Amino acid sequence: MNEDFxxxxxxxxxxxxxxxxxxxxxxxxxxxAGLVIYxxxxxxxxxxxxxxxxxxxxxPTPGFLFFAKPKTFILPHGRGTHTVPNGARDARAxxxxxxxxxxxxxxxxxxxxxxxxxxxxxxxxxxxxxxLMMHGDLRIVPLRDAEGFFLPKGExxxxxxxxxxxxxxxxxxxxxxxxDRTESMIRYIEIALVDGNGQPTEKTVLAPMTMAIxxxxxxxxxxxxVLGNQIANAPVLANPQQVTLLEEEKICAxxxxxxxxxxxxxxxxxx
Length: 271
Hints:
- By secondary structure, the chain is of the alpha+beta class.
- The chain is 21% helix and 21% strand.
- The protein contains four helices and eleven strands.
- It starts with a helix and ends with a helix.
């Protein structure tokens, strides 16, 4: 018995009968299966608590396979920590009801569909605090408070322009523009609502700039998403000098809902 004999026996019974390509394929399958399980655990973290759509029964967390263990995140600017999942349920009462009693059935608005918070009007329950820049300053502010920011030369300043809805009815007057100081772009139009005589009032709302059309020739702003009288029902800021993340969600949801719910005709099928 010598070393060559044992080496030959090992090669014969182990290496000679083993396919490296097959080993690589199995290793890939195991890695990919583990990756899928990991991603499925992580991507459901923000959706907790998971619940049955038909009964509202909460699914147990954490679980064995597709439920991630609680993770604690350190929030910036001294805002403490946030742990998810934490068992908290969304406190919103949707003004909608399922069209049927099975999982995945669509929700149909009950009452004013513009305020039902479903479909194009749905929004995420984000933190009710302003978005901040790296050093803790407000990210989105009125142009009047944004030191060093101004409209480029030659650009139209819509302040004072009437704001019209899809029906060409006036819903307000442009009071100011709100700028994103991180992205250096206009995010919202601040609209002063008008009274019965068409005169601006103290009440103001924000409308997404991306949903507004500035008509420099006719000196007006068009918002096709809603009707003129619906602008007055847009969410109102708790603090007129700042907008929170939750308020941004609600503003975009309200005007987004108008593309489907502003008129009964929009909610009907095209064909």
